[in-house]
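Notes to self after the Tuesday call (sharing in case useful).
The group wants a holo model before anyone commits to mutagenesis around the pocket. I volunteered. Ligand is iron/sulfur cluster. Logging inputs and output together so the record is complete.
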Amino acid sequence: MQRRDFIKITAAGGAAAALEGCGNPDHHLIRFIPEEDLLPGIATWKPSICTLCPAGCGTLVRVMQGEAEVIRNGQLGILKMGLAKKIEGNPAHPINQGKLCPRGHGELQVTYHPDRIRSPLQRTGERGSGQFKEITWDEAIKQLVSQLSGVPGPSRGWWAMITSPLRGQRKTIVDDFAYALHGGHFEFEFFDSALPAVDLGQANYLLSFGADFLGTWNSPVAQSISYGRMRKGRPGQRGKFVHFESRISQTAASADEWIPSRPGMDGVLALSLAHVILRDKLRSAGSAGGAAASIDGWTQGLPDFAPEKIEKQSGVPAATITRIAHESAANAPAVVLMGDSAAAHTNAVFSARAVNALNALLGSVGKPGGSAFSPALPMRGSQSMQPTSNLSHREGPGSASFAMFRDMVTSTSKAPQVLLLHNANPVFGSAQGSQVRDLIAKSGFIASFSRFIDETSALADLVLPDHSPLESWLDDALESGSAQTVVSLAPPAMAPLHNTRSMPDVLLDVAQQLGGDVAKALPWKTYDEALKASFSELYKEKGTKNAKDADDFWSKAQEQGGWWSADEKPSAPASSKATASPAKYTEPQFDGSADDFPFYFLPFASQMFYDGSLAHLPWMQEAPDPLSSVMWGTWVEINNRTAEKLGVKMGDIVAVASAHGTLEAPALVTPAIAPDVIAMPVGQGHTSYTRYASNRGANPISILAPMTVAGTDALAWAATRVKISRVGEGKLVMFGASMEETPKDLKHR
Ligand code: SF4
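Result:
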């Protein structure tokens, strides 16, 4: 314990007077009067929402009386208050039913992190230098209002807000704010949040094309629960699971069969399975409805996809394709998933259509044991909005992708005059991140709502620190994980520790100060007032059976952690009509020639860090990866036979080079990856993200090519080729210090 800390504690304990002779009076902390009644030693459990990934699991937070160092009215002091001690899953919540993944437990550390921003900050040094001084909220809001009051305008240009993908009333508030003030709302994400909900619990056969549904894809806790039911929840009936991917993920390790197919061959394999089902008359061509009509050659029985032709292309034996086609058709309900790497190839749109058609042929869309879509919600902001490239001609509020922001800046050579950032780190999470950094740095004025300084918020002129999720009102309108309609709601589980404010509250305050259209569009004084209004709408449409009036509905939702419908039947997609032109197979494109860059490069979502946004949490750094057991670092997965040829041993430092950059990291030699594939977890390699994540490991995104999925602006992050070479001896930090011996004769394609 340092001297400063000792003096703080004793001052707070009332012994300061006795120590005045030897302590600095500036260090004495005042004791605030408690703001709430709490019984010492008695815990209360308060509903909340996990915000650490898009799944939106419901949580319960254990709150007990404790003493904390807090800031009140700009004054540092000690307060006896309710403090969050533990997070568990909310058993009543339909998505996660009382369970959490390891990341969810780590949310506690967001609140107590020693590097949290404690007060509004104003830049004092060069942009990006990390030099700031503390200012008051009044000064901060005044600056933001002044910057926004002049845009857009002929001499001031345009303005934009970049956030992580938002849902519920947070999205409504940001969309309305941006639309009313003629700005643009752009959402940034590295891994796509996915749809639909999957009813694995009633499925008898499951085919996955690269979806890590038990680890990081879509709604992993909900899927883990229903996967458990599929395997063990029905006496005498155990569903079979087959996984196609070129490496063994946490999910692939649970499969009955792992089939290491070539990267980008997912659509081809789906249609080859469909070919066998049609050829052997296991289903009729018409049974797939409109989804099948969107595939070229369907009515002719997909002659180009005979297993014998596809074997060479995909690396999967024809006999295996034929057998799996027969098994899936004979074991209804059978469901097919596609996610992660399969959706990150240049031909992913074709693959998605092929997988949809196979699902339709197997009869699993909108049926028990299949895939389903959550019903639309009768609330403002719950409908998806059409993105547009022209901000001044939009028909209504909505958001567009970060790629569109990038295009707008590069095509017009005009960066926004004002840029707001919330919970998005595109400098870390974009291919060619240094170019993104330069592009963002050209903005006239940057304000960030970040809780921590990361690579993007380091560029801010003004930092308006957000509450932690446990200190804030939260809401969410779920789109996946359950066939029920689910709207999560949570009041703050504890009072704020620091001089922070929640992002929606700041926007509402700024809207009122700006006046005019934006004040009319957002008439609420606070975020909870806006939430109450939206729940009043929901009550009129859906909630009259659950509560005696709108106030009762609102109170019950707060106690329960939200509102959800009674069991509903799964629904099929809104339109199953054929698309205009049937999809034809397109080869996946890869950046870099096979001669110069002989390996496919496969980044993957880390179980602990997700997309890298959780690398600042020490529990996540300390937790061993479930497959490799690596802690506090990163690794490069190399097949054992490939490693032998290259003279690489476990733990050696290797250089991985693409046409866009080189990184170095220790090798993890394993048979659990195809010989022509090199894989790396995303998450480490931050240059600026608190004491725990900065300058630790390497970032695979930094060497990716800026390839996109054809027909979209999504990054094709599995479309880069690399070469590798041994640099020298190194070390992997692993739980238990090593992996178990692996058999040398494991067969690969
Ligand atoms: S899956 Fe894990 S990280 Fe994601 S919301 Fe649920 S508990 Fe949180």
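Two things stood out.
The first helix runs from residue 3 to 12.
Residues 1-23 have pLDDT under 50 and may be disordered.
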